[in-house]
Amino acid sequence: MSDPFPTSLVLDISALMASKTRDWQEFSRVGTCFLPGPVVDELKFLCDRASDSDQEKVAREFSRFHPTSGWQTTDLSLSHPSIKAPSGSAASKNARLMVSVAECAYGLAESNPEELIVLVSNSHPLLQMVQSTNAENLCGITLTALLQWARTHQKPPAVVQQGRTMQAAIMPGSVRSDSGSKPVRAKASPGRSTPPPAPPASPAPASAVRYRPNRSSSSHPGFLSQLISGVIALTLFTVAGLAMWQMVQPASFRQFWKRTGLPALPWDAPSQQTKPVKR
Question: What's the average model confidence in pLDDT over 196-201?
Fold first, then answer.
């Protein structure tokens, strides 16, 4: 799984003097390597006028490695109230170099808020100085931690913690840039507060859910049933009306019934009288 944030390393002179070409090659696999301008000047100085032969040897070895390494030199610098030389050593060369490296690392962090800047140094005062800036994308580790990181691919705890700090600083609605996998921070407009997200809709209680019957199971009669019921009702009504008419005006009713051509009703049939038989 790729890292959510690109990583850049800032190498201090103390870390370079305690490592070799093989180590420098492994550093490049961790992230982009940067050399502050004052560190490059100090390496050039040690190539010719180092008081220690071992330092001169390492400086010359690095001068052969650097041109084809892909490492970048930067003069970027940004001051911070917490970046200052320890008391009593402000005038020393090492103190000035320490401040320059810290200001370079802090400047890179402020100029690249979407990258994790890691300062590598064996100077604990320098590491504490960088940590005191409280920059959310800047941290410091020792050379030993970097070597273990490059060889085991396991991030040091300080790097893991700083990555979590960066992740927490990114708003939930952040997006990624089109050119890569860098997260883009959402900027809030001044004077306006971001409204809280609407709470998720809760499911309606069972008592509020209305039952919607299926049309195929409806209790209303169909068209055919309605037609039959209507015919039966009309027939009964007609029969009742005729019966009422026959009772109220029997003579008029008989005349009407004869005109219909229907058979005579049973109660209107003439009674057959028995005629006497002639002898």
Answer: 50
Counting beta carbons within 10 angstroms of the beta carbon of residue 158, is it exposed (0 to 12), middle (13 to 18) or buried (19 or more)? middle
In whole angstroms, what is the distance from residue 279 CA to residue 262 CA? 40
Burial of 246 (0-12, 13-18, 19+ CB in 10 A): middle
Q: Pairing relation of β-strands 175-176 and 183-184? A: antiparallel
Backbone CA torsion sign across 167, 170, 173, 179: negative
Instruction: Give the residue with greater pLDDT, 189 vs 267.
Output: 267
**pLDDT at 267 > cutoff 60:** no
How confident is the model over 46-103, as pLDDT tens digits? Answer: 998 878 889 899 999 999 999 999 999 999 999 999 999 877 665 688 899 999 999 9
C-alpha torsion 230→232→238→244, nearest 10: -120
- As a whole number of angstroms, the distance between CA 77 and CA 121 comes to 17
Q: How far apart are the first and last CA of the chain?
A: 135
d(CA 74, CA 76): 5
Q: Name the CA radius of gyration of the chain, rounded.
A: 51
Q: Give me the residue label for tokens 């580790």.
A: 141
DSSP letter string, 127-189: HHHHHTT--TTEEEE-HHHHHHHHHH----HHHHHHHHHHHHHS-TT-EE-TTSS-EEPPPPP
CA distance 265 to 4: 104
Residue 23, token pair as written in the block:
């180590």
Tokens matching residue 14: 């103390």
What is the residue whose two structure tokens read 């997260």? 183
